[in-house]
Amino acid sequence: MDKHDGIRSDVKSITVNEMFDLWCQLKRGIKDSTFKNYIYMYELFVKPTFGKKKLVQVKKSDVRRFYNQLIDDKVLKPSTVDVIHNIVHQVFQIAVDDDMIRSNPAANMLREIKMAHGSEIEKRKALTLEQEELFLGYLARTPKYQHWYPVFYIMANTGMRVGESSGLRGGTEAMENGIISVNHTLVYYNHRDEKGCYFSINTPKTKAGIREIPMTEGVKQAFLMEKEFQEECGMKSVSHIEGYSDFVFVNRNGEGQHQGTLNKALQRIMRDCNSEVLEKKGVDSDPALLPKFSCHVLRHTFATRMCESGLNVKVVQSVLGHADVTTTLDIYVTVTNDLKKREITAFETYLKTGAKQMANV
Questions:
Q1: pLDDT tens for residues 269-327?
Q2: What does the pLDDT read at residue 172?
Q3: What is the mean pLDDT of residues 20-29?
């Protein structure tokens, strides 16, 4: 039957791992950092177990069982399983396209698993205005963390991705005109060579990523604060990465900042900020506290503030560098729906208050 349908009979001994090797040879059109991350994830979670299975013997139930094990035994986050599924699905699709198997056993499997576990990937939640003011206010007034204020303020008020922020350069991203030019990102990852982990420069994934962002006065002041802080500490950018140098944000050694360092700093800031609030106001007062969040949430927070202010969705898309307007609209619709609910609730309160006043007349 397989032979009659054009399904090859000479592939019975091929394993999933061998198909992955073929996928690696054929894969094109993605950043080197992304590709290396795919290889790392596959070798860590797939290769030792599921990858040893014979390609033609894998059924949907095998994929389901494997994903369940990743979630239940390995306790992986849905976003991590999503990356693994993306690789596994593509590997099997090559086999389908080459007539090695009839259908892709990983097709629609991730959605099914998420529904079964009640773990649909949650949308990143932006900081509320109150949380954002608490965060930035704490940085501004706390000597221990003041040196982090410029980079986090700029992220929260430009919407730049963390790699775009850390890749900014003092000479070329000139600020005299009040415009930030975004045309590359600074990424730190395992290159899987003799040097291991080190920085590289990536160009934006899409043309929309190359953009200019107008600076607010607050952003200008944050850049000046960073410059003054570095001059006082005798810090200077020393990194030369693939022809790029003179980076705006550097560590105490003058080397580029990367996402891991920034996110670790955020964790310490959240902890100490919340401790201060609880100490001053007490647990019983139910005070506003900072949630656990990452650098990327600051980008989402900026997008949310823009939408809340009523900016045209195309302007929001341009500033954020979204190639597809549906990505922007997803944020925009969520924000405007929340805003409408708040306004309707306020309107209802107003009507009730008015009715009481009329009754007392």
A1: 999 999 999 999 988 888 889 999 999 999 999 999 998 888 888 999 999 999 888 88
A2: 46
A3: 92
How many angstroms separate the CA atoms of 165 and 74, rounded? 33
Neighbours of 235 (CB within 10 A): 16
Please give the radius of gyration of the chain, using alpha carbons only, rounded to the nearest integer: 25
Give the burial string for 262-272 (b: 16+ CB within 10 Å, else e).
beebbeebbee
Q: Which of 22, 39, 4, 47 is nearest to 97 (CA)?
A: 22
- Report pTM: 0.77
Q: What pLDDT score does 205 carry?
A: 75
Please indicate whether residue 2 or residue 83 has the higher confidence score (pLDDT).
83
Q: Which residues contact 289 (CB under 8 A, 6 or more apart)?
A: 134, 273, 274, 277, 278
Q: What are phi and psi of 53, to 5 degrees?
A: -70, 150
Tabulate helix, strand, coil % of the chain (nearest 5).
60, 10, 35
Q: Beta 185-190 vs 179-182: how paired, if at all?
A: unpaired
User: Where would I find the beta strands (DSSP E) of the chain?
Assistant: 179-182, 185-190, 197-202, 211-214
CA-to-CA distance for 159 and 299, rounded, in angstroms? 4
CA dist 289 and 301 (Å) reads 16
DSSP 9: S
**pLDDT greater than 90 at residue 162:** yes
**Residue predicted with more confidence, 335 or 26:** 26
Q: Give the residue from 141, 170, 333 showing the smallest Cα distance to 256.
A: 170
Q: Which residue's entry shows tokens 């932006």?
A: 126
Above 80 in pLDDT, residue 99? yes
Q: Which one, of 297, 237, 232, lies nearest residue 262 by Cα?
A: 297
Going by C-alpha positions, the residue among 11, 99, 105 that lies closest to residue 50 is: 105
3-state secondary structure 188-201: EEECCCCCCEEEEE
